[in-house]
């Protein structure tokens, strides 16, 4: 209930403050484990994806955010998974795989941090690791534009990547990660 109320409130705020366009939301599977993987241009990105999907989602948040009194409480109740960035946080990966095995949806930004120049950086292998371990579908996504009322922001969801088919064809996590980068780049250029 808290999640739905918070999503409705944030959605109202975002649509009042920003010009938003969402393309391909119907590509997200309605059930089963899903990892949405997007580029990361702003601190506004996680809520944008959250308000642009019908399904409830979980996401990573750096552990420092959980220590901020009000914000920490809120993100904890919005399905955030704490992660120690730059440390290969096994506990966060374990919690994520467990959530995916329960059929949940997880949003992550595999670059690991926001881009400074708007270009897609190399991706970390966490998304492919979690998808392979849980059998989750990966949905590539791209955030383009600017968070303002004039130019606006566009969120594009790409074609789902069937992890089981990729693994069956012999692709490694590294190759899956490379393919994910290609898919996100294609969405950014479209």
Q: How would you portray this structure in words?
A:
The protein has 190 residues and is α/β, with parallel strands linked by helices. It contains eight helices and seven strands. Strands 1-7-6-2-5-3-4 form a seven-stranded mixed beta sheet, sandwiched between helices. Strand 6 and strand 7 (153-157) form a beta hairpin. The chain is globular and about 45 Å long. The model has no long low-confidence stretch (mean pLDDT 91).
Question: Count of DSSP helices?
Answer: 8
Please trace the helix and strand order, writing H or E for each element: HEEHEHHEHEHEEHH
Looking across the biggest beta sheet, what order are the strands in?
A: 1-7-6-2-5-3-4
N-to-C CA distance:
36 Å
Give the CATH architecture.
3-Layer(aba) Sandwich
User: Which runs of at least 5 residues are low in confidence (pLDDT < 50)?
Assistant: none
What coarse outline follows from CA principal-axis ratios?
Answer: globular
The class by helix and strand makeup works out as alpha/beta
Overall pLDDT confidence: 91
Biggest sheet character: 7 strands, mixed
Radius of gyration: 16 Å
What is the percentage of strand-forming residues?
Answer: 15-25%
Number of domains: 1
What is the fold named in CATH at topology level? Glycerol-3-phosphate (1)-acyltransferase
Q: Can you give the helix content as a percent range? A: 40-55%
Question: How would the blueprint of this fold be written?
Answer:
Blueprint: H1 2-17, E1 20-23, E2 34-38, H2 45-51, E3 57-62, H3 63-66, H4 69-76, E4 80-83, H5 90-101, E5 105-108, H6 126-134, E6 137-145, E7 153-157, H7 163-168, H8 173-189
Helix pairs in contact: 1-2, 5-6, 6-8
EC number: 2.3.1.51
Family: Belongs to the 1-acyl-sn-glycerol-3-phosphate acyltransferase family.
Enzyme class: transferase
């Amino acid at each position: 209930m808290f999640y739905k109320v918070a999503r409705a409130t944030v959605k109202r705020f975002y649509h009042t403050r920003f010009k938003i366009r969402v393309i391909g939301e119907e590509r997200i599977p309605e059930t089963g484990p899903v990892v949405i993987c997007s580029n990361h241009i702003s601190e506004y990105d996680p809520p944008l994806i959250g308000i642009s999907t019908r399904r409830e989602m979980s996401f990573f948040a750096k552990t420092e955010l959980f220590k901020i009194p009000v914000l920490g409480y809120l993100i904890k109740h919005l399905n955030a998974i704490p992660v120690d960035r730059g440390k290969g946080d096994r506990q966060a990966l374990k919690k994520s795989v467990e959530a995916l095995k329960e059929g949940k949806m997880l949003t992550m930004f595999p670059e690991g941090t926001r881009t400074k120049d708007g270009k897609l950086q190399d991706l970390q292998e966490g998304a492919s690791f979690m998808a392979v371990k849980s059998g989750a579908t990966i949905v590539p996504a791209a955030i383009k534009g600017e968070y303002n009322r004039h130019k606006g922001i566009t969120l594009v969801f790409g074609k789902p990547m069937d992890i089981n088919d990729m693994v069956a064809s012999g692709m490694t996590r590294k190759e899956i990660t490379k393919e994910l980068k290609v898919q996100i780049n294609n969405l950014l250029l479209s």
